Task: structure prediction
Amino acid sequence: MRVSCYFSTFFFCFLLLISRAAVADHPSAGFGADSTGPIITVSATTLAEGEWSFSSRLEYLNLKTFTDEELIEFAEEDQHVHSTSSVLTPFFNGAYGVTDNFSLSFRIPYVARNNIREAEIEDHGHEEPLEGTGHGEEAEIHGGDARGIGDALVFGQYRFINTDESALQLALLAGVKFSTGSKSEKDSEGNIFETEHQPGSGSTDVLLGFAFTRKLSRTSVDSNVLYTATTKGSQETELGDLFHYNVGFSYRWKGNQKHNHDHTEHEHESHPHFVWDLILELNGEWQQAHKIAGVEDPNTGGNLVYVSPGMRIGMSGQWSVYFSVGIPIVNDPNGIQHETSFRIISGVGFGIW
Result:
């Protein structure tokens, strides 16, 4: 069957992508209209010409922290390691249908990294070893919270294949992340946090990828790949390139039998009806190691894959509320880094036409 062929091919490609196991303390991609379809995976569906869509999203990352003793031990071994308790990121997204096959969207985040800690070994010239070290040096834990407006993103989506009744869709994804975020947040002692902990990176980055959508009567299969090419930002730091790869399965449990997250004039003229979608996604994030003044930091970057069950309820073509829980199944950071415990995403989206 042709449907089975599409599904098998795409799922096999996804398994190849996750065959090696992160971006542990960075928020997910979260692009597009964000009012229908999967929650994290970018759908190939575009907005109808002249239609607006807005959404507000809240993402929470809970991280496995290092103890003070572990951080001191890493510092004694001359390892640059930090620990962050959690990351809370509210987003505001908006999208507009320029044509039926081309949509533009924007995203403005607020980033709150909580309880950032790092050990520092300071030599005060003591002849006898001090507590916490064995080398006549003193170990100190520095840290605090880094909170502020993050970098804004402008994102375009061009659907170049759209078969009868939107059963099969393919779209080109492209975007630019601008240096609008805060780059001067300080720790509890007044020292500026490193760039990787700042809400904004200070760099202008380019995004490019593809999205795939295959819709049946009650089911939709969506997938996308998206590569972010980064540039040098503040403090002579270049955060590593990013590669997001996602696949999502949506099932229309309640509501119209046609699983439709296509935005058409016909749908807008019809009577809205209550819908309830069950969603299951696999979300992958791979990142290169960061470079500081041209020197690679071995304790940055890696690969992280979530399995993310979720649900979306709302009125068709008008509004929706959604919720997703991400559980890491691949947690493979480079070098010494804390791992992710879980991720929670919730939000609300609505359309105007």
Q: What stands out?
A: Confidence is low (pLDDT under 50) at residues 1-24, 129-136, 263-269. The CA atoms of residues 289 and 301 lie 4 Å apart. The radius of gyration is 22 Å. The helical segments are 2-17, 68-76, 265-269.
